[in-house]
Amino acid sequence: MKAAIVAVGDELLAPSREETNSVFLTEKLAEAGIPVAFRAVVGDDVEAIGDVLRSALGRAGLVFLTGGLGPTSDDVTRDAVARALSLDMELDEDIVRAIRARFEARGVPMPDVNVRQALVPEGGDVLPNRCGTAPGLFIPLDDDRAVVLLPGPPAELRPMFSEHVQPRLASKAEKLHYDVRKLWIVGLAESSVEQKIRSAYIGVDNPSTTILASAGQVEVRLTATGGSPEEAAAKNGALSAKLEGLLGANVFSAAEEQLEEVVGRLLLSQGKRITVAESLTGGLIASRITDVSGSSRYFDESVVTYSNEAKMERLGVPEELFGRVGAVSEEVAHAMATGARAGAGADVAVAVTGIAGPTGGSTEKPVGLVYVALATDDGVRVEKFQFPGGRSQVKRWTSQAALNLVRLHLLHERGG
Amino acid sequence: MKAAIVAVGDELLAPSREETNSVFLTEKLAEAGIPVAFRAVVGDDVEAIGDVLRSALGRAGLVFLTGGLGPTSDDVTRDAVARALSLDMELDEDIVRAIRARFEARGVPMPDVNVRQALVPEGGDVLPNRCGTAPGLFIPLDDDRAVVLLPGPPAELRPMFSEHVQPRLASKAEKLHYDVRKLWIVGLAESSVEQKIRSAYIGVDNPSTTILASAGQVEVRLTATGGSPEEAAAKNGALSAKLEGLLGANVFSAAEEQLEEVVGRLLLSQGKRITVAESLTGGLIASRITDVSGSSRYFDESVVTYSNEAKMERLGVPEELFGRVGAVSEEVAHAMATGARAGAGADVAVAVTGIAGPTGGSTEKPVGLVYVALATDDGVRVEKFQFPGGRSQVKRWTSQAALNLVRLHLLHERGG
Q1: Does B89 touch chain A (CB under 8 A)?
Q2: Chain B contact probe: residue of A158, A301, A392 with most B CBs at under 10 A
């Protein structure tokens, strides 16, 4: 069993436009043991889609088409597939009702054009869309072959794939099993990660190892194959254990947990509450903490203190500090964390002050200079950083550093 | 004249593998006025390559194949193209000599397998490779159509394209210029946007119109062509003006400005300062406001009040409201905005309370229920929303609705 992926949309053929759905699907299919034999991007054109679909069916039993399922007249994937496979379309009243209910829940009547989304080629199974109006379709052609239509927005495609497509693939996969393991690392540059672990992975073909970096985070990805899921997992397990030993506490997750999830879990298990005082990150750290469902069990409140006045009034930072050492200083970070902890009555407070750029830097205090302070019942600890990149990257790096400082403190508490 | 790009190589179909040559070629072709109509990735397979090439020639006059020109047995692009186009192959002695010289310069005899790289389909022009052994090929089919073979390594492909392909395109490209315009819309669903504007764009081929939706935002993209940049821009300008008329204040940018940038500009021009009180968004709105460089000129501080206690202490929300109407209510949103505005001494305060999910919903107050309140010197206005999707989508939708409420207020102020 092999797969093909056809992404549909004029906009995907424009310059500087990334097509991320096939990256996602290729990975998920690899995990299910199904290799991709063909990938294509085609515009919103009935004939072109039909032609590419026939070509794809020539080299793959399982063809995914993504995008072009919306309600508007440039969304032609359903029509094109029905025509290419000579299938009639039927109006599915259940889908009409579901779409209408979705609109009514928002207090809006369903526009007439949305009825197009309820057309189903004969023999097709509807895949419910939990996050949008366009349902997906699973069209079995015979015992071995199927055409699968998925919506273009990744936020709709991903849950639909996991919930409704993945379970159908189990039986289609060949007997080669894949195991993917990701080590997520904070506090080390990509090149330092490489230097620490190269002795362990160079020359090892199975698992294969790749290293990917983003602002404030490095991913080491291991992909193993084996005759059984257990064999593949064991191969990954052996190398992963070696790498984790070499990387130590810099590895914050081997299970695709975000840093804010790891921090949330540690807070919860230790019965502690956290607060945040943010200057340059402007709310990003609190927003990440509250991205975790259930975060209200350890997070009550936080403040964004952008101006000096706000730092004084909300956090009790002494006015003289601004004249003497400036808002971006160890002393102000220290005072912000102390004031935030006292003001919120929290066990742990983390505070950040720095220069996000692109303006506001100087020779002594360049763009990217950041102080992160942590206040706990052990006292206050301040760390100084110099981060690279533009405004949004400096904000992201800072949020990583702040969450990591909290994580290392809580890990140490747990150990002690 | 349109182009198609076919990337060849089993390795390009593996997970976590990026295919960057088509990104490069798409950009360079756009600069030359040649749009890409089709893109594909196919394995090292003679039949598959031939089949995709025929399909590509059906929708593009200029087909690029990248990769598979090396000396080893899995490099089959040359063979596949010659077979698909029924062209004989001839050994080019000049190429043999050039490859041999390249090896001898490194003090290594040329391996026999490299002779394969000197096979040229009849009628093909050889494109010299300054950075590797695999020459490229430019195969004219007739006055209007050509097939171009380029080596896979980007370090070889890029100079070859610039030096030997780009000069040939000048004559192929029609003197066609492109103009792209994007209308960014808030407060309307994708299908409502379509219904409002379809009478204006259906049947218009130039510019072409596509509609794309993400959480809380819809993009209408116009792509016009013309004999000069001015002609293309004028065509977009005419349709864009019609669409903006139909969509009214729902269009927040025709210049790719984010909502937070538009709000920032309005605040700055009116000399007003803003503050935020966030419950379910947990800091996201403030973080977006401070994503804009220079936001300290209109933003001093904000609070995240996640718990009821924080809403009472930080914002003065009356305790009795939580028992009587609950934290997610018009009344609490109202009190939050009022308290935030007074506490920060700001001109404009926006407050949000709602249920981000996935837990915490009920029949009366389902996940996605959100109240947004705006406090200004005109008083307080509260709007109720029911947003779709998961936790991060509900947060995103809410931040869009809050920033939009501020924008509409400031627009009205400017008008009044």
Answers
A1: no
A2: A301
Please, which pLDDT band fits residue A171 given cuts at 50, 70 and 90?
low
CA distance B112 to A96: 65
Locate the DSSP E strands across B337-397. Answer: 348-354, 369-376, 379-386
Q: Which residues of A touch B190 (CB under 8 A)?
A: 70-72
User: How many CB atoms are closer than 10 A to CB A113?
Assistant: 18
> What pairing do the DSSP bridges indicate for beta strands B274-278 and B301-305?
parallel
Distance CA B1, CA A158 (A): 36
| Interface residue A80 vs chain B (CB under 8 A) | no
Is residue A62 scored above 70 in pLDDT? yes
In percent, how much of chain B has pLDDT > 90? Answer: 65
Q: What residues in B contact A59, CB-CB < 8 Å? A: 45, 48, 51
Question: Which domains are present in chain B?
Answer: 3-172 (3.40.980.10), 177-253 (3.30.70.2860), 259-415 (3.90.950.20)
- Please say if the pLDDT value at position A260 is more than 60: yes
CB contact under 8 A, A15 and B37: no
**Has residue A16 got a pLDDT over 80?**
no
Decide if A376 contacts A409 (C-beta within 8 A). Answer: yes
Name the amino acid, one letter, at A28: K
Chain A residues close to B285, C-beta within 8 Å: 283
Interface with chain A: mutation pick from B6, B19, B21, B41, highest number of A CBs within 10 Å: B41
Q: Which pLDDT value is given to residue B173?
A: 54
- Predicted complex ipTM: 0.73
Q: Which of residues 252-311 of A touch B (CB under 8 A)?
A: 276, 278, 280-287, 289-291, 293-296, 299-307, 309-310
Tell me how far CA of residue A42 lies from CA of A70, B154, B170, in angstroms.
16, 23, 25
Whether omega for the bond prior to residue A366 falls within 30 degrees of 0, making it cis, is no
- Write down the residue that tokens 């360079």 correspond to: B28
Mean residue pLDDT of chain B comes to 91
Helices (H), A161-315: 166-169, 190-201, 229-247, 259-269, 284-289, 308-315
pLDDT at B368: 95
**Cα–Cα distance, B242 to B235 (Å, whole number):** 11
- Are B361 and A105 in contact by the 8 Å Cβ rule? The answer is no
A109, closest residue in chain B (CA to CA)? B192
Residue B263 exposure: Cα atoms within 13 Å on the Cβ side: 31
